[in-house]
Amino acid sequence: MTEFEARLIEKSGAPAVRWKSHAAAWMGVSRPTLNAYLAHASIGNMEQIPETILEMLDILPERSASQPMRPSIEEMVLSFSVGLVALQDEIDTHGHPRAPYPAHLQRGLDVASILKCLDGSEYPVTLADLLGVAGKPLYEWCPKLEGPLSDEFYAARLLENFEITRDCLAIAELGQQDSEHAFYQTVMDCCEELGSAGQELYEAWRRTVVEVPIASGYTQLLGRHPIFMRQLGVAQRLIDTFYVRMPPVHAESGKILLCPSTGTRLLRVGGRLFTELRDDSAQRMLDTQGPRTIDYTPDVLELRRPARLFWSLPGWHEIKLVDSVRQLGWEVDLWPKFDTVDLVIRKKGNAKRFAVDVKDHISAQGLARSFKRFKDYKTHIRFVVIPDYLKVLNPDYVKIFTRARASLGKEKVDLLTVSELLKLLKKAEK
């Protein structure tokens, strides 16, 4: 028995039977966290045990200059985000999480335990606790979170329907390689190889990842556009970067259930199916029409989760808007000049030109901070456009966005909903 274990039993007053459960409750940590501490103590790796825990047992080692500073709420949130992304990857691949917990998830639980010991904060110290709060906005369970992370993500939810969100991915990537940028860089490298044909490849590939988030195999993707067949090597590289073979665990009775709006794989929670798209119109269509289905085979390919969350789902709003604008008789360029803006809208005989960026950010403050400015199209009328459902969720979205831009000293940007833009275009016809 190690000194750590002996002191723990003594201090906690643990009974002879089920002493670990009693000791974990006394320390305010989960059983897996306690087991990790015991494993570190058994090999003398005491520096891996939080200082606050050692203080509780009166076995605090001498402080060295290299010892880390007190953990922060920001570190806890970052660790939870990275850990949940890793946990989601395990579930996507294997259908269930595996032991032990991902290292960053364990670190997040450790930090939460330390903060709880220090000031009694009610942060999640078990995975069950975390799953219970991660679907709520950060400000509800981390009210003391401050700084840039809070400014941009104060209303972020790490989970929706027990799956990670775009915000969870974005937080996890702070200080790490940005997967959204990594995907974009791969596309741009391929476009640069093709020279003058690069814009054609860009538009074709962007449409592909929006319209075919799940493919029956390579043949379906290669057949989407003639440029893919002309440039097989480039197309292969893009497919291998963006797509992954779907594990059979996601099939139900040999079928894959798809969202009728987006074509993405559905999530079953209890007896109900949910779509990854936040827009409630997609969920209503699913509830009314039921899912689309395709047969599962080992050749089925699915967009990697970051590509779905950062490319496919936001792009669905962009393409839907293009269709609506064209129905009004306007011409639309989609993703011109390699996506300098999402849409350029014009009409022959009409002097007005519009440049539009479509943004699906749940947080108005986050959008105000992340949107830099329009870099071009100074002769156009320029708008940032958000899906209608965001203003339904937050009627003050535009007001909050405008005030946040002003407080950050950023360039003024006009913000409209999709419906407001379409109404403006109808008036501009006259």
What labels would you give this structure?
five-stranded mixed sheet; three-stranded antiparallel sheet; 22 helices; pPIWI_RE_Y; pPIWI_RE_REase
Short synopsis of the structure:
InterPro entries: pPIWI_RE_REase (IPR040828), pPIWI_RE_Y (IPR041191). With 430 residues, the protein is an alpha+beta fold. It has helices spanning 3-12, 19-27, 31-42, 51-56, 73-94, 103-119, 127-133, 138-141, 148-153, 166-172, 179-193, 198-211, 218-222, 226-230, 232-242, 280-289, 305-327, 336-339, 364-370, 388-393, 397-407, 418-428; strands at residues 159-160, 163-164, 214-215, 243-245, 255-258, 267-269, 272-274, 292-295, 301-303, 331-334, 343-347, 350-358, 381-386, 415-417.
Helices and strands in order:
Layout: H1 3-12, H2 19-27, H3 31-42, H4 51-56, H5 73-94, H6 103-119, H7 127-133, H8 138-141, H9 148-153, E1 159-160, E2 163-164, H10 166-172, H11 179-193, H12 198-211, E3 214-215, H13 218-222, H14 226-230, H15 232-242, E4 243-245, E5 255-258, E6 267-269, E7 272-274, H16 280-289, E8 292-295, E9 301-303, H17 305-327, E10 331-334, H18 336-339, E11 343-347, E12 350-358, H19 364-370, E13 381-386, H20 388-393, H21 397-407, E14 415-417, H22 418-428
Parallel strand pairs: 12-13, 13-14
Antiparallel strand pairs: 1-2, 3-9, 4-9, 5-8, 6-7, 10-11, 11-12
InterPro entries: pPIWI_RE_REase, pPIWI_RE_Y
Domain REase associating with pPIWI RE: 315-427
Domain pPIWI-RE three-gene island: 83-215
Oligomer: single chain
Number of strands: 14
What form results from the Cα inertia axes? globular
Kindly name the structural category.
alpha+beta
What proportion strand? 5-15%
Mean of residue pLDDT? Answer: 89
Radius of gyration, taken over Cα atoms and rounded to an integer in Å: 25 Å
Largest sheet: 5 strands, mixed
Helix count from the secondary structure assignment: 22
**Strands ordered across the widest β-sheet:** 10-11-12-13-14
Distance between the termini: 85 Å
- Binned, the helix content reads 40-55%
Note poorly predicted spans: 63-67
InterPro entries: pPIWI_RE_REase, pPIWI_RE_Y
Domain pPIWI-RE three-gene island: 83-215
Pfam families: pPIWI_RE_REase, pPIWI_RE_Y
Domain REase associating with pPIWI RE: 315-427
